[in-house]
Design brief:
The chain is an alpha+beta fold and about 375 residues long. It contains 9 helices and 13 strands.
């Protein structure tokens, strides 16, 4: 604009402007002369005030510009953040698809089933969030015979398949598993028979029983079958622990082993005979059935091994979930594959006074009382 005005002034001096342009330019010159005369007639104080006013206006203008730039940058950053968040939510939902959710549920179920005696993950809810975060929340239950008691909750956080327990809360310390069996060779340990004697009639108790010697599952069933009101809930398996006294980190499996949805139920085969005139034909049909109360040893062992395999093959998912047990699931699986499944401990539940009668059984070496509730 300054260059344009100078060009117009040079054209005026050379007489190259039209009469109208010349008249307009002279009017501008008169205004400039009047403004110059006004400035020259100002006192020093007035000039200082004018200078300060100009600087203030300039400073105000600069501040406004800075705020506009900051607000513009903030809005752009917020818009970018929201866009990234929305994209991350979509990608997170895809990453934790239906298959991944089921795998993680199966892994978590297997961890609780094999490493938390008589604690089962009941209902659970899986939700994915932003930036590859997900949570698994659920209820923990304990079985007392055919009755189930809510004993706690869990909340597990997941970031890119790395799990850690945000919280594992039991409704009172009496509901938490004591996780204590003893080596069958240990003899200088007092059992809790006195505790069972002091508990009143009308209560159900949960006890940890160490056997006098490790036994096969079939042998354990032979001892349990005559006990009509006492129910096995969990079997502690010898997986090669080296501690000769206390086995405080047991690995085992529940009496109801079907915690993995994809495992088929046992089948029963029915033979049929059909007669047509002089001829007859025979056939067979298979149908699913429930597991035998004191039977299906091979089915139970196969499911136990499958749960160990699920945990062993998904170490990233359970790295912070198992409290770093003395024997890993991978080592436990290798041990039972080589040496077979030998049971050295049981979690039993039943009427307190019926459990007290176990004191007469020669196959019982030690007994610890873990929990007791009123019979409902």
């Amino acid at each position: 604009m300054k260059d344009e005005w100078l060009k117009k002034m040079q054209a005026y001096e050379r007489g190259e402007l039209s009469p109208e342009e010349e008249k307009a330019f002279e009017d501008e010159l008169e205004k400039l002369e009047a403004y110059q005369s006004h400035i020259e007639n100002q006192t020093p104080e007035e000039r200082k005030t004018r200078s300060n006013s100009s600087e203030a206006k300039l400073s105000k203008s600069v501040r406004k510009g800075k705020w506009r730039a900051l607000l513009s940058n903030a809005f752009s950053a917020f818009a970018l953040f929201m866009l990234i968040t929305m994209v991350s939510a979509i990608l997170t939902s895809i990453y934790y698809g239906a298959f991944s959710k089921e795998v993680q549920r199966d892994v978590t179920r297997s961890v609780f089933a094999t490493q938390y005696p008589n604690i089962r993950m009941n209902s659970s809810g899986f939700s994915s969030g932003f930036y590859f975060n997900a949570t698994l929340d659920g209820q923990l239950v304990k079985s007392f015979g055919s009755y189930e008691e809510d004993v706690g909750t869990f909340h597990i956080k997941n970031i890119l398949d790395l799990w850690g327990i945000g919280s594992l809360d039991f409704y009172g310390t009496e509901h938490a598993p004591i996780n204590t069996f003893f080596d069958p060779s240990v003899s200088n340990v007092e059992s809790d028979w006195g505790t069972l004697e002091r508990l009143p009639e009308g209560t159900l108790s949960e006890v940890y029983v160490t056997l006098a010697a490790p036994k096969s599952l079939d042998e354990v069933f032979q001892h349990l079958e005559p006990l009509e009101t006492i129910y096995p809930q969990w079997y502690a398996v010898d997986v090669g622990e080296t501690d000769e006294f206390s086995r405080s980190e047991p690995i085992g499996f529940p009496d109801d082993p079907f915690i993995l949805d994809y495992l088929p139920a046992p089948e029963s085969e029915t033979m049929t005979e059909e007669k047509t005139g002089w001829f007859s034909s025979t056939g067979s049909s298979s149908s699913s059935r429930g597991i035998e109360v004191y039977g299906d040893e091979e089915v139970r062992i196969d499911i136990f091994k499958e749960m160990l395999r699920v945990v062993a093959n998904n170490q990233r998912l359970v790295k912070n979930l198992t409290n770093h047990f003395a024997v890993s699931s991978e080592d436990a699986l290798a041990y039972v594959n080589e040496n077979g499944v030998q049971i050295y401990g049981l979690v039993l539940t039943g009427p307190t006074k019926e459990l007290l009668k176990l004191q007469e059984e020669t196959w019982v070496k030690h007994l610890r009382v873990n929990d007791s509730i009123l019979w409902k």
